[in-house]
Amino acid sequence: MKVLPSDKIREALNILAGEAEVYAPLVNGDVSGYFKWADNPAEELALDVLNTYMSPKNIVMPQTENMYDFEARGKEAQVIRVTNAEGPRVIFGIKGCDLQALHALDLAFLTKGFEDEFYKTRRKDLAIIARACYQPGPACFCESMGVDRLNPQADVVIHDLGQQDFAWEAKTPKGEEITSKLQGILVEKDVKLPQAAEQQRKVDITGLSEKLAGMFENPVWDELSSRCMNCGVCTYVCPTCYCFDIQVSNRGEAGNRFRCWDSCMYREYTQMAGGHNPRDYKKERFRNRFLHKLQFFNERYGANLCIGCGRCVILCPNEVNILEVINKLKEVQVDA
Amino acid sequence: MSDNTTKAREIAKKLLQDGTVAMVLGWEKGDQPYVSAPAVVRDDAGADRLVVDEFCIHDLAALLTDYRDSSDKIAIFAKGCDARAIVRMIQDRVITRDRLYIIGINCPGMKDPNEYARAESGLSKAKPADKAAKCQSCQYPNPVIYDEILGEAQQPGADQRFAEVEKIESMSADERYDFFIKEFSKCIRCYACRNACAACNCRTCIFDETKPQWVGRSTDPVNNLLYQIVRTMHVAGRCIECGECERVCPAGIPLMLLNRKLIQDVDRLFGPYQAGLSLDDDAIPPLSRYRVDDPDEFM
Amino acid sequence: MKSFLQYLGIEPERYQLAWISGSEGQKFADIMTHVVAEVKKVGPNRKLREEHE
User: Fold this and answer.
1) Which of A105, A118, A136, B135 has its C-alpha lying 20 to 30 A from A307's C-alpha?
2) Has residue A13 been placed in a domain?
3) How many CB atoms lie within 10 A of CB A40?
4) Is residue B39 scored above 90 in pLDDT?
């Protein structure tokens, strides 16, 4: 099988970066995420840790994304430049969980009769080099959410043989194309793929979505939401949270319209133009987030929105744990 | 089981049974040994889940804003920093003293559960510190306000609070600006700092306003820095130096560098003054009251 | 506030506070001239600018 040796990874990324925007797991100070590769010696590749704090959703849905620039004098306004994010992109090292998240985002942004232009531009020419995951972490429960972590569906699948030497398998014509670009670096070797360790955390969500349909007014939400402080960290590190806001920046006679991540945890998230706010209280916003993840998305798209990466569990400052929430919801007795 | 945990459970049960309070704010274990999650307890079964251990780092007083409009009496466990947060809440009129039964905890310093979570999950290779960053220079480990107290009185740590501030002040203006802009390029505007802060307790926060919108929502470093400038100025003089903002930040931004600078300034210009130490009338935050001898170099 | 901005690396000449009554026209003019001269001395500002690509 072909192998990408660990000391050639930077070179490989540079070759790919010559023709596309490359995103790889990188450490920037205290934060890790899938950032743009610029061969910065100060930036460390985060391939020897389980995953990154920030999910790769920023590649197809940047935190702040310019839409268009305009000029406005008096009552006349004119769009002078629309952002064009066309171009090939490559993501290196994405794991099965985050890849499943990408498919969930595809469902949200590209189906049901409307295609989001901005998302589509960034998504359509995205080549995926995925990492098979042999050593899940203690907070991982992706398999309970239907993720195939050992055989991710990608253009190329890589397997860590130890010390970040990666066995390399092209799976699609695009994958073959990438492989041929790197033929000077990949070596042929006999490899023994690693043993897959078992995932410790499991949760059974069969029937949960249907049960939740009748639990909107259930008092259990008061107890579940009591320790949440509505801060928004979960929504930002979650690979599938996709809510966004569209705002304008005015500078006198010119400005630009941009979109940015929004969070259902914020008080003004559902505030209407007239001032009415149907989710004024913490419990309502908390309930909305979990129902979206565990019920609404299943009903609308037939897929799970939580993909079991565990980031929210690890990073929540007040220890809200979606597994605890799921288990408590399952325990609640509902009259038929 | 620790002594404090046993006592905590007894106290909670007694207060609930004799009707002194309608609910108890404390901590209960999560599904990992390093998780002691904030919990609202209303009955014996809940009280039996309470714990007091070295992972109880969360400021429970920040949750009091959820109960500002009710008339329920609340028992709340409070470490040194949390007690100052309670003073903050009372002075800011979020809740009245008579609604609270405060169970103080003389605090030896806590560990940061998120550091453990990150290390154990494999997201980070950094080893968890023995004592959380926010506890390092704590000067008030013993609660300044309480109805009863757990644990032995503790000694304050070495006062290194302003060492980092002084390091920044020794840099040139350009170096300082570049340092802060670099830090704030990591900010994702999750507003965890604001939500965790005891002093950030306005019903409608300025950053929730849309008409007008005071600080742009795009996450470029300049807007991020501007957000923090406004927030720091709003809590100036009221910041109790609990360090929750820095602890909860998922991007690891050193927010206490900003808050401590203003604590120093307020102390120098209006002081001596430290927030959240007393409910006396003359301990009202200096920026919340006017005195004839306030500095007025701009006149 | 001024001290805070200085701590963040903003030149102190750029942010000045003065208390001027509506009837103190001369004082207003003097201070404005003074501030403009000070700011000109430190030159064009590159900090806290909303950069836009």
Assistant:
1) A118
2) yes
3) 11
4) yes
